[in-house]
Amino acid sequence: MGSNSKAVKSGIWYTISNFLLRSVGIITTPIFTRLLTKQDFGLYSNFTSWLSVLSLCVTLNLGTTFISARFDFKDKFDEYILSMLGLCTCSIFTATLFFNVFSDFFVNLFGIDRIYINCMMVYLVFSQAIDMLQVKERFLFGYKKTVFISCLTTVSTALLSVLLVVALSDKLAGRIFGSVVPTIIIGLVVYVVIVLKGKRIRIKYWKYALPICLPYIPHVLSLNVLNSADRIMITNIRGPEENALYSLAYLCGSVITILVTSLNSAFSPWLGEKLHEGKFDETRSASKYYITLFLALAVGLMLISPEIILVFGGKSYMEAKYVMPPVMSGCVIQFLYTMFVNVEQFKKRTLGMALASASSAGFNLVLNYIFIPKFGYIAAAYTTLASFLWLLIVHMFLVKRIHYNMAYDYKFVSLIVLLVLVLTVVINALYIYTLIRYILIACYAAVMLTAAIKNRGKIKSILRGS
What is the pTM for the complete model shown? Predict the structure, then answer.
Protein backbone atom coordinates (compact mmCIF):
# COMPACT_ATOMS: atom_id res chain seq x y z
CA MET A 1 0.00 0.00 0.00
CA GLY A 2 2.93 2.32 0.81
CA SER A 3 4.35 1.72 -2.66
CA ASN A 4 1.03 2.59 -4.27
CA SER A 5 0.71 5.75 -2.16
CA LYS A 6 4.20 6.82 -3.15
CA ALA A 7 3.38 6.18 -6.81
CA VAL A 8 0.14 8.17 -6.59
CA LYS A 9 1.85 11.05 -4.80
CA SER A 10 4.66 11.27 -7.36
CA GLY A 11 2.12 10.91 -10.16
CA ILE A 12 0.01 13.80 -8.86
CA TRP A 13 2.97 16.14 -8.46
CA TYR A 14 4.45 15.11 -11.80
CA THR A 15 1.10 15.73 -13.51
CA ILE A 16 0.85 19.19 -11.97
CA SER A 17 4.39 20.20 -12.93
CA ASN A 18 4.25 18.72 -16.42
CA PHE A 19 0.86 20.29 -17.06
CA LEU A 20 2.24 23.67 -15.97
CA LEU A 21 5.29 23.29 -18.19
CA ARG A 22 3.39 22.24 -21.30
CA SER A 23 0.53 24.71 -20.89
CA VAL A 24 2.70 27.81 -20.51
CA GLY A 25 2.34 28.49 -24.23
CA ILE A 26 -1.44 28.50 -23.90
CA ILE A 27 -1.45 30.58 -20.72
CA THR A 28 0.70 33.29 -22.31
CA THR A 29 -1.20 33.34 -25.62
CA PRO A 30 -3.32 36.43 -24.73
CA ILE A 31 -0.08 38.31 -23.96
CA PHE A 32 1.74 37.49 -27.18
CA THR A 33 -1.28 38.05 -29.42
CA ARG A 34 -1.04 41.66 -28.24
CA LEU A 35 2.77 42.02 -28.39
CA LEU A 36 3.33 40.33 -31.78
CA THR A 37 2.00 41.17 -35.21
CA LYS A 38 -0.23 38.54 -36.81
CA GLN A 39 2.62 37.71 -39.19
CA ASP A 40 5.13 37.14 -36.37
CA PHE A 41 2.56 35.20 -34.37
CA GLY A 42 1.94 32.98 -37.42
CA LEU A 43 5.66 32.49 -38.03
CA TYR A 44 6.22 31.47 -34.42
CA SER A 45 3.31 29.05 -34.70
CA ASN A 46 4.97 27.61 -37.80
CA PHE A 47 8.24 27.28 -35.82
CA THR A 48 6.53 25.32 -33.02
CA SER A 49 4.68 23.13 -35.54
CA TRP A 50 7.91 22.08 -37.22
CA LEU A 51 9.58 21.69 -33.84
CA SER A 52 6.83 19.23 -32.92
CA VAL A 53 7.26 17.25 -36.13
CA LEU A 54 11.07 17.15 -35.98
CA SER A 55 11.07 16.17 -32.33
CA LEU A 56 9.16 13.05 -33.34
CA CYS A 57 11.66 12.14 -36.04
CA VAL A 58 15.20 13.22 -35.18
CA THR A 59 15.04 12.25 -31.47
CA LEU A 60 13.94 8.72 -32.50
CA ASN A 61 11.38 8.69 -29.65
CA LEU A 62 13.80 6.72 -27.50
CA GLY A 63 11.82 7.49 -24.39
CA THR A 64 9.19 5.00 -25.53
CA THR A 65 11.61 2.17 -24.70
CA PHE A 66 11.91 3.12 -21.04
CA ILE A 67 8.75 1.36 -19.89
CA SER A 68 10.33 -2.02 -20.70
CA ALA A 69 14.02 -1.10 -20.28
CA ARG A 70 13.29 -0.10 -16.69
CA PHE A 71 12.89 -3.82 -15.93
CA ASP A 72 15.21 -5.35 -18.51
CA PHE A 73 18.16 -3.21 -17.32
CA LYS A 74 17.07 -2.50 -13.77
CA ASP A 75 20.58 -2.33 -12.30
CA LYS A 76 22.00 -0.38 -15.26
CA PHE A 77 19.24 2.12 -15.83
CA ASP A 78 21.54 5.18 -15.53
CA GLU A 79 23.85 3.62 -18.08
CA TYR A 80 20.89 2.89 -20.35
CA ILE A 81 19.63 6.48 -20.10
CA LEU A 82 23.05 7.88 -21.02
CA SER A 83 23.23 5.48 -23.97
CA MET A 84 19.84 6.67 -25.18
CA LEU A 85 20.85 10.31 -24.76
CA GLY A 86 24.04 9.61 -26.71
CA LEU A 87 22.10 7.94 -29.53
CA CYS A 88 19.61 10.80 -29.55
CA THR A 89 22.42 13.37 -29.73
CA CYS A 90 24.06 11.53 -32.64
CA SER A 91 20.74 11.45 -34.50
CA ILE A 92 20.11 15.16 -33.96
CA PHE A 93 23.69 16.05 -34.94
CA THR A 94 23.38 14.04 -38.17
CA ALA A 95 20.07 15.73 -38.98
CA THR A 96 21.60 19.16 -38.29
CA LEU A 97 24.45 18.49 -40.73
CA PHE A 98 21.94 17.34 -43.34
CA PHE A 99 19.76 20.42 -42.89
CA ASN A 100 22.76 22.74 -43.23
CA VAL A 101 24.21 21.02 -46.30
CA PHE A 102 20.84 21.42 -48.05
CA SER A 103 19.90 24.60 -46.21
CA ASP A 104 18.23 26.37 -49.15
CA PHE A 105 15.82 23.50 -49.64
CA PHE A 106 14.91 23.18 -45.96
CA VAL A 107 14.60 26.93 -45.40
CA ASN A 108 12.01 26.99 -48.18
CA LEU A 109 10.32 23.81 -46.99
CA PHE A 110 10.06 24.84 -43.34
CA GLY A 111 9.49 28.53 -43.99
CA ILE A 112 12.05 29.15 -41.22
CA ASP A 113 15.40 30.98 -41.39
CA ARG A 114 18.52 28.85 -41.10
CA ILE A 115 19.49 30.30 -37.70
CA TYR A 116 16.14 29.24 -36.26
CA ILE A 117 16.48 25.71 -37.68
CA ASN A 118 19.85 25.35 -35.92
CA CYS A 119 18.40 26.88 -32.78
CA MET A 120 15.63 24.28 -32.93
CA MET A 121 18.11 21.42 -33.16
CA VAL A 122 20.17 22.63 -30.20
CA TYR A 123 16.97 22.95 -28.20
CA LEU A 124 16.02 19.34 -29.03
CA VAL A 125 19.31 17.98 -27.67
CA PHE A 126 18.93 19.58 -24.26
CA SER A 127 15.17 19.21 -23.97
CA GLN A 128 15.70 15.47 -24.44
CA ALA A 129 18.17 15.46 -21.55
CA ILE A 130 15.52 17.04 -19.33
CA ASP A 131 12.85 14.62 -20.55
CA MET A 132 15.05 11.58 -19.89
CA LEU A 133 15.93 12.70 -16.36
CA GLN A 134 12.25 13.21 -15.65
CA VAL A 135 11.48 9.73 -17.00
CA LYS A 136 13.99 8.28 -14.57
CA GLU A 137 12.43 10.19 -11.68
CA ARG A 138 8.95 8.99 -12.66
CA PHE A 139 10.02 5.36 -12.67
CA LEU A 140 11.62 5.79 -9.25
CA PHE A 141 8.43 7.57 -8.11
CA GLY A 142 10.39 10.73 -7.34
CA TYR A 143 8.89 14.11 -8.01
CA LYS A 144 10.88 16.88 -6.29
CA LYS A 145 13.49 17.24 -9.05
CA THR A 146 10.78 17.05 -11.70
CA VAL A 147 8.66 19.72 -10.04
CA PHE A 148 11.68 21.99 -9.52
CA ILE A 149 12.95 21.67 -13.10
CA SER A 150 9.46 22.09 -14.60
CA CYS A 151 8.69 25.19 -12.53
CA LEU A 152 12.11 26.73 -13.18
CA THR A 153 11.78 26.12 -16.93
CA THR A 154 8.21 27.40 -17.05
CA VAL A 155 8.81 30.63 -15.15
CA SER A 156 12.11 31.47 -16.87
CA THR A 157 10.68 30.76 -20.33
CA ALA A 158 7.62 32.95 -19.78
CA LEU A 159 9.59 35.83 -18.28
CA LEU A 160 12.45 35.77 -20.80
CA SER A 161 10.06 35.51 -23.75
CA VAL A 162 8.08 38.58 -22.67
CA LEU A 163 11.27 40.49 -21.84
CA LEU A 164 12.93 39.77 -25.20
CA VAL A 165 9.78 40.48 -27.23
CA VAL A 166 9.45 43.87 -25.52
CA ALA A 167 13.19 44.70 -25.71
CA LEU A 168 14.11 43.54 -29.22
CA SER A 169 13.06 45.22 -32.44
CA ASP A 170 12.88 41.76 -34.06
CA LYS A 171 9.87 40.44 -32.13
CA LEU A 172 10.00 37.00 -33.76
CA ALA A 173 13.61 36.51 -32.67
CA GLY A 174 12.68 37.55 -29.15
CA ARG A 175 9.81 35.08 -29.04
CA ILE A 176 11.86 32.16 -30.37
CA PHE A 177 15.01 32.77 -28.31
CA GLY A 178 12.95 33.41 -25.20
CA SER A 179 11.23 30.05 -25.60
CA VAL A 180 14.37 27.97 -26.17
CA VAL A 181 17.26 29.55 -24.22
CA PRO A 182 16.05 28.60 -20.69
CA THR A 183 15.58 24.97 -21.73
CA ILE A 184 19.05 24.90 -23.34
CA ILE A 185 20.74 26.27 -20.21
CA ILE A 186 18.86 24.02 -17.77
CA GLY A 187 19.22 21.05 -20.14
CA LEU A 188 22.99 21.54 -20.33
CA VAL A 189 23.25 21.11 -16.56
CA VAL A 190 21.00 18.03 -16.68
CA TYR A 191 23.03 16.60 -19.58
CA VAL A 192 26.21 16.78 -17.47
CA VAL A 193 24.43 15.08 -14.55
CA ILE A 194 23.29 12.20 -16.80
CA VAL A 195 26.83 11.78 -18.17
CA LEU A 196 28.35 11.67 -14.68
CA LYS A 197 25.82 9.11 -13.42
CA GLY A 198 25.71 6.94 -16.55
CA LYS A 199 29.51 6.91 -17.04
CA ARG A 200 29.48 4.95 -20.31
CA ILE A 201 27.56 4.43 -23.54
CA ARG A 202 26.91 0.87 -24.67
CA ILE A 203 25.99 0.00 -28.25
CA LYS A 204 24.04 -3.06 -27.07
CA TYR A 205 21.42 -0.71 -25.66
CA TRP A 206 21.10 0.96 -29.07
CA LYS A 207 20.46 -2.45 -30.63
CA TYR A 208 17.81 -3.10 -27.98
CA ALA A 209 16.07 0.27 -28.40
CA LEU A 210 15.95 0.83 -32.16
CA PRO A 211 13.66 -2.11 -33.07
CA ILE A 212 11.22 -0.86 -30.43
CA CYS A 213 11.25 2.87 -31.12
CA LEU A 214 11.59 3.02 -34.93
CA PRO A 215 8.13 1.51 -35.61
CA TYR A 216 6.80 3.99 -33.05
CA ILE A 217 7.81 6.97 -35.25
CA PRO A 218 5.12 6.30 -37.92
CA HIS A 219 2.68 5.96 -35.02
CA VAL A 220 3.38 9.43 -33.62
CA LEU A 221 3.71 10.98 -37.08
CA SER A 222 0.30 9.58 -38.00
CA LEU A 223 -1.12 11.05 -34.79
CA ASN A 224 0.46 14.36 -35.76
CA VAL A 225 -1.29 14.17 -39.12
CA LEU A 226 -4.50 13.23 -37.33
CA ASN A 227 -4.21 16.35 -35.17
CA SER A 228 -3.17 18.81 -37.88
CA ALA A 229 -4.70 17.67 -41.19
CA ASP A 230 -8.13 19.04 -40.27
CA ARG A 231 -6.80 22.62 -39.94
CA ILE A 232 -4.95 22.39 -43.25
CA MET A 233 -8.01 21.01 -45.03
CA ILE A 234 -10.35 23.58 -43.48
CA THR A 235 -8.11 26.37 -44.79
CA ASN A 236 -7.94 24.85 -48.27
CA ILE A 237 -11.63 23.94 -48.52
CA ARG A 238 -13.49 26.56 -46.47
CA GLY A 239 -10.97 29.39 -46.05
CA PRO A 240 -8.80 30.89 -43.29
CA GLU A 241 -11.72 32.49 -41.42
CA GLU A 242 -13.27 29.13 -40.57
CA ASN A 243 -9.86 27.76 -39.75
CA ALA A 244 -9.34 30.62 -37.29
CA LEU A 245 -12.54 29.61 -35.46
CA TYR A 246 -11.57 25.94 -35.41
CA SER A 247 -7.97 26.65 -34.42
CA LEU A 248 -8.99 28.72 -31.41
CA ALA A 249 -11.31 25.96 -30.18
CA TYR A 250 -8.57 23.44 -30.84
CA LEU A 251 -6.11 25.58 -28.86
CA CYS A 252 -8.52 25.75 -25.92
CA GLY A 253 -9.11 22.01 -26.17
CA SER A 254 -5.36 21.39 -26.17
CA VAL A 255 -5.41 22.16 -22.46
CA ILE A 256 -7.00 18.78 -21.88
CA THR A 257 -4.70 17.16 -24.46
CA ILE A 258 -1.75 18.35 -22.39
CA LEU A 259 -3.49 16.89 -19.35
CA VAL A 260 -3.76 13.53 -21.20
CA THR A 261 -0.01 13.55 -21.84
CA SER A 262 0.83 14.62 -18.30
CA LEU A 263 -1.44 12.05 -16.65
CA ASN A 264 -0.19 9.26 -18.89
CA SER A 265 3.43 10.12 -18.17
CA ALA A 266 2.62 9.79 -14.47
CA PHE A 267 0.48 6.66 -14.83
CA SER A 268 2.64 4.58 -17.20
CA PRO A 269 5.55 3.89 -14.76
CA TRP A 270 3.13 2.53 -12.16
CA LEU A 271 1.30 0.51 -14.83
CA GLY A 272 4.57 -0.97 -16.11
CA GLU A 273 5.50 -2.08 -12.62
CA LYS A 274 2.11 -3.74 -12.02
CA LEU A 275 2.13 -5.47 -15.41
CA HIS A 276 5.63 -6.74 -14.68
CA GLU A 277 4.36 -8.17 -11.39
CA GLY A 278 1.19 -9.58 -13.00
CA LYS A 279 -1.08 -7.62 -10.65
CA PHE A 280 -3.96 -7.16 -13.07
CA ASP A 281 -6.57 -6.74 -10.34
CA GLU A 282 -4.79 -3.58 -9.23
CA THR A 283 -4.54 -2.17 -12.76
CA ARG A 284 -8.26 -2.82 -13.41
CA SER A 285 -9.29 -1.22 -10.13
CA ALA A 286 -6.98 1.79 -10.37
CA SER A 287 -7.81 2.45 -14.02
CA LYS A 288 -11.52 2.82 -13.19
CA TYR A 289 -10.80 5.63 -10.72
CA TYR A 290 -8.27 7.12 -13.13
CA ILE A 291 -10.74 7.14 -16.04
CA THR A 292 -13.60 8.46 -13.91
CA LEU A 293 -11.50 11.37 -12.63
CA PHE A 294 -10.42 12.33 -16.13
CA LEU A 295 -13.98 12.12 -17.44
CA ALA A 296 -15.16 14.39 -14.61
CA LEU A 297 -12.51 16.98 -15.52
CA ALA A 298 -13.43 16.80 -19.21
CA VAL A 299 -17.15 17.25 -18.48
CA GLY A 300 -16.38 20.30 -16.34
CA LEU A 301 -14.46 21.89 -19.20
CA MET A 302 -17.26 21.06 -21.63
CA LEU A 303 -19.75 22.88 -19.42
CA ILE A 304 -17.70 26.08 -19.31
CA SER A 305 -16.51 25.97 -22.93
CA PRO A 306 -18.35 29.19 -23.96
CA GLU A 307 -16.55 31.08 -21.19
CA ILE A 308 -13.19 29.57 -22.24
CA ILE A 309 -13.76 30.73 -25.83
CA LEU A 310 -14.78 34.19 -24.63
CA VAL A 311 -11.57 34.61 -22.60
CA PHE A 312 -9.23 33.43 -25.36
CA GLY A 313 -10.95 34.83 -28.44
CA GLY A 314 -13.63 37.32 -27.49
CA LYS A 315 -17.19 37.62 -28.77
CA SER A 316 -16.20 37.36 -32.45
CA TYR A 317 -15.11 33.74 -31.85
CA MET A 318 -18.10 32.61 -29.81
CA GLU A 319 -19.58 30.34 -32.48
CA ALA A 320 -16.50 28.15 -32.04
CA LYS A 321 -18.00 26.96 -28.74
CA TYR A 322 -19.87 24.25 -30.66
CA VAL A 323 -16.54 22.69 -31.61
CA MET A 324 -15.49 22.26 -27.98
CA PRO A 325 -17.64 19.25 -26.90
CA PRO A 326 -16.47 16.94 -29.72
CA VAL A 327 -12.89 18.16 -29.26
CA MET A 328 -13.08 17.44 -25.52
CA SER A 329 -14.72 14.06 -26.15
CA GLY A 330 -11.99 13.25 -28.63
CA CYS A 331 -9.48 13.94 -25.86
CA VAL A 332 -11.29 11.48 -23.57
CA ILE A 333 -11.14 8.81 -26.28
CA GLN A 334 -7.48 9.68 -26.84
CA PHE A 335 -6.90 9.27 -23.11
CA LEU A 336 -8.50 5.81 -23.22
CA TYR A 337 -6.57 4.46 -26.19
CA THR A 338 -3.32 5.79 -24.72
CA MET A 339 -3.86 3.44 -21.76
CA PHE A 340 -3.93 0.49 -24.17
CA VAL A 341 -0.89 1.87 -26.02
CA ASN A 342 1.01 1.73 -22.71
CA VAL A 343 0.42 -2.03 -22.57
CA GLU A 344 1.64 -2.46 -26.15
CA GLN A 345 4.77 -0.46 -25.33
CA PHE A 346 5.39 -2.62 -22.28
CA LYS A 347 5.19 -5.73 -24.48
CA LYS A 348 7.32 -4.03 -27.19
CA ARG A 349 4.53 -4.42 -29.79
CA THR A 350 5.06 -1.07 -31.52
CA LEU A 351 4.49 -2.24 -35.11
CA GLY A 352 0.78 -2.75 -34.49
CA MET A 353 0.62 0.73 -32.97
CA ALA A 354 2.10 2.24 -36.13
CA LEU A 355 -0.36 0.42 -38.39
CA ALA A 356 -3.30 1.44 -36.19
CA SER A 357 -2.32 5.12 -36.23
CA ALA A 358 -1.68 5.13 -39.97
CA SER A 359 -5.11 3.61 -40.64
CA SER A 360 -6.75 6.15 -38.33
CA ALA A 361 -5.00 9.07 -40.04
CA GLY A 362 -6.15 7.79 -43.44
CA PHE A 363 -9.68 7.33 -42.11
CA ASN A 364 -9.63 10.93 -40.85
CA LEU A 365 -8.47 12.32 -44.21
CA VAL A 366 -11.28 10.53 -46.05
CA LEU A 367 -13.93 11.75 -43.59
CA ASN A 368 -12.61 15.32 -43.77
CA TYR A 369 -12.73 15.23 -47.56
CA ILE A 370 -16.35 14.09 -47.47
CA PHE A 371 -17.82 16.20 -44.65
CA ILE A 372 -15.88 19.50 -44.42
CA PRO A 373 -17.17 20.75 -47.81
CA LYS A 374 -20.76 19.97 -46.73
CA PHE A 375 -20.80 21.01 -43.07
CA GLY A 376 -17.79 23.29 -42.59
CA TYR A 377 -15.20 23.45 -39.85
CA ILE A 378 -17.43 21.93 -37.15
CA ALA A 379 -17.45 18.64 -39.09
CA ALA A 380 -13.68 18.34 -38.60
CA ALA A 381 -14.12 18.01 -34.84
CA TYR A 382 -16.51 15.10 -35.30
CA THR A 383 -14.36 13.38 -37.94
CA THR A 384 -11.40 13.56 -35.53
CA LEU A 385 -13.59 12.15 -32.75
CA ALA A 386 -14.62 9.27 -35.05
CA SER A 387 -10.96 8.62 -35.94
CA PHE A 388 -9.95 8.50 -32.28
CA LEU A 389 -12.81 6.09 -31.63
CA TRP A 390 -11.55 3.85 -34.43
CA LEU A 391 -8.07 4.03 -32.90
CA LEU A 392 -9.41 2.99 -29.49
CA ILE A 393 -11.23 -0.02 -30.98
CA VAL A 394 -8.08 -1.16 -32.81
CA HIS A 395 -5.88 -0.81 -29.73
CA MET A 396 -8.37 -2.69 -27.57
CA PHE A 397 -8.24 -5.48 -30.14
CA LEU A 398 -4.42 -5.46 -30.24
CA VAL A 399 -4.14 -5.66 -26.45
CA LYS A 400 -6.63 -8.52 -26.38
CA ARG A 401 -4.66 -10.27 -29.09
CA ILE A 402 -1.50 -10.28 -26.94
CA HIS A 403 -3.60 -11.63 -24.02
CA TYR A 404 -3.29 -8.57 -21.80
CA ASN A 405 -6.95 -7.57 -21.92
CA MET A 406 -7.23 -8.52 -18.24
CA ALA A 407 -5.31 -5.30 -17.44
CA TYR A 408 -8.49 -3.24 -17.96
CA ASP A 409 -12.24 -3.73 -17.63
CA TYR A 410 -13.42 -3.67 -21.26
CA LYS A 411 -17.09 -3.30 -20.30
CA PHE A 412 -16.32 -0.28 -18.14
CA VAL A 413 -14.28 1.33 -20.94
CA SER A 414 -17.15 0.74 -23.40
CA LEU A 415 -19.61 2.30 -20.96
CA ILE A 416 -17.41 5.39 -20.62
CA VAL A 417 -17.23 5.73 -24.41
CA LEU A 418 -21.02 5.55 -24.69
CA LEU A 419 -21.43 8.08 -21.87
CA VAL A 420 -19.01 10.60 -23.37
CA LEU A 421 -20.71 10.41 -26.78
CA VAL A 422 -24.09 11.09 -25.18
CA LEU A 423 -22.65 13.99 -23.17
CA THR A 424 -21.19 15.48 -26.36
CA VAL A 425 -24.67 15.80 -27.84
CA VAL A 426 -26.42 16.88 -24.63
CA ILE A 427 -23.93 19.56 -23.55
CA ASN A 428 -23.73 20.95 -27.07
CA ALA A 429 -27.51 21.36 -27.05
CA LEU A 430 -27.36 23.15 -23.67
CA TYR A 431 -25.27 26.05 -24.98
CA ILE A 432 -28.41 27.91 -26.04
CA TYR A 433 -29.93 27.44 -22.56
CA THR A 434 -27.53 29.51 -20.47
CA LEU A 435 -29.52 29.40 -17.22
CA ILE A 436 -29.84 25.59 -17.29
CA ARG A 437 -26.14 25.29 -18.05
CA TYR A 438 -25.22 27.54 -15.11
CA ILE A 439 -27.39 25.46 -12.81
CA LEU A 440 -25.59 22.33 -14.00
CA ILE A 441 -22.22 24.03 -13.48
CA ALA A 442 -23.23 24.86 -9.90
CA CYS A 443 -24.35 21.27 -9.32
CA TYR A 444 -21.13 19.96 -10.85
CA ALA A 445 -19.03 22.23 -8.62
CA ALA A 446 -21.00 21.14 -5.54
CA VAL A 447 -20.50 17.45 -6.34
CA MET A 448 -16.76 17.89 -6.93
CA LEU A 449 -16.34 19.95 -3.76
CA THR A 450 -18.32 17.39 -1.73
CA ALA A 451 -16.17 14.57 -3.10
CA ALA A 452 -12.99 16.50 -2.27
CA ILE A 453 -14.17 17.19 1.30
CA LYS A 454 -15.32 13.61 1.80
CA ASN A 455 -11.95 12.27 0.68
CA ARG A 456 -9.78 15.03 2.16
CA GLY A 457 -8.08 12.56 4.49
CA LYS A 458 -7.02 10.32 1.62
CA ILE A 459 -5.94 13.31 -0.46
CA LYS A 460 -3.76 14.67 2.37
CA SER A 461 -2.16 11.27 3.02
CA ILE A 462 -1.39 10.83 -0.67
CA LEU A 463 0.20 14.29 -0.93
CA ARG A 464 2.27 13.53 2.19
CA GLY A 465 3.21 10.13 0.73
CA SER A 466 1.98 8.28 3.79
Answer: 0.68
